[in-house]
Amino acid sequence: MNYIENLIANGTNFRVDRKTNSASFRPAGDSSSDLEAFQSVVRDLHNHEGDGYRVHKAHPSSDHGRGLIDLVLVTFEPGD
User: Fold this and answer.
1) Would you report the helix, strand and coil content of the chain in percent, each value rounded to 5?
2) Is the pLDDT of residue 30 over 70?
3) Rg (CA), the chain
4) How far is residue 44's CA from residue 52's CA, in Å, rounded to a whole number?
């Protein structure tokens, strides 16, 4: 099982929409605490980039400022 599959199966603090060649990750809810908790997922996605996927885009929140990310889009590498 690669990192993304493990994250989706066992992770918390996020919602995921997985497609054949990509996935999008968002905070579990709309609250500030959900957005703060999601930042650990953002860091982990960046730290494990290359383990079967690439981070296509990390979208900064326009509502909360402070450089917090509210959406991460990843694309899967061929063969995964």
Assistant:
1) 30, 35, 35
2) yes
3) 12
4) 14
Answering whether pTM is above 0.85, one says: yes
Cβ-based neighbours of 54, under 8 Å, separated by 6 or more: 74, 75, 77
Q: If 0-12 CB within 10 Å is exposed, 13-18 middle and 19+ buried, where does residue 71 land?
A: middle
Q: For residue range 37-71, what is the model confidence (pLDDT) as tens digits?
A: 999 999 999 999 999 999 999 999 987 667 899 99
> 27-35, long-range: CB within 8 Å, 24+ apart, which pairs?
27/70, 32/64, 35/61, 35/64, 35/68, 35/70
Specify the pairing of strand 22-27 against strand 53-60. Answer: unpaired
Cα separation, 35 vs 71, in Å, equals 10
pLDDT at 17: 95
Q: Are 43 and 55 in contact (CB under 8 A)?
A: no
